[in-house]
Write a structure and sequence with these properties.
The protein has helices spanning 2-18, 32-38, 56-61, 67-73, 78-91, 138-158, and strands at 22-26, 47-52, 96-102, 116-123, 126-133. It is an alpha/beta fold. Strands 2-1-3-4-5 form a five-stranded mixed beta sheet. The chain is globular and about 40 Å long.
Length: 159
């Protein structure tokens, strides 16, 4: 967890310096990203909140992800990750939205192998999504996803 806390400290500090707020939408990580951020002193000045969107119904009804997209692509998809991040940004009134979706295992999901992870980022400039393939057990994959989500948040804060 040390690396996660280091990344979180950097992200919180940078967001506070820039006066930017952040919201999370997490499926795969189920609140881990927002919890790590909230564990960092100063987080209350930048973390708006987070949505744990484990079920597709929450992705649709709370985050505004298109039901057609979910039906066509499944929940583990780059476009879904981008839409989740945009939904969190809008729903929670933040400058930056960050999302996680993926397959932690033990079985494949929506035709995607275990370890497939998508991180979504939404800013005023638009949305983007990034694909990763991790290995390890369920907990390790979720931890790695949290780490890259914080790295992508740092990148968004730097641009």
């Amino acid at each position: 967890m040390t690396n996660l806390h280091h990344l979180s400290e950097q992200a919180v500090r940078k967001a506070l310096e820039l006066g930017r707020t952040v919201a999370t939408a997490e499926s795969l990580t189920a609140g881990m990203v927002s919890a790590v951020l909230a564990d960092t002193p100063g987080a209350s000045g930048m973390l708006q909140g987070g949505v744990v969107a484990y079920q597709n119904s929450v992705k649709e009804n709370v985050l505004g992800v298109s039901p057609e997209l979910l039906a066509d692509a499944g929940s583990v998809d780059s476009a879904v990750a981008a839409a989740m991040a945009a939904g969190a940004r809008t729903a929670l009134g933040a400058d930056i939205g960050i999302s996680t979706t993926g397959v932690a295992g033990p079985e494949a999901h929506d035709g995607k192998p275990v370890g497939t992870v998508y991180i979504g980022i939404a800013t005023g400039a638009g949305t983007a999504a990034f694909e990763y393939l991790f290995s390890g057990n369920r907990s390790e994959i979720r931890g790695q996803a949290c780490g890259v989500a914080l790295e992508r948040l740092l990148e968004a804060l730097a641009s």
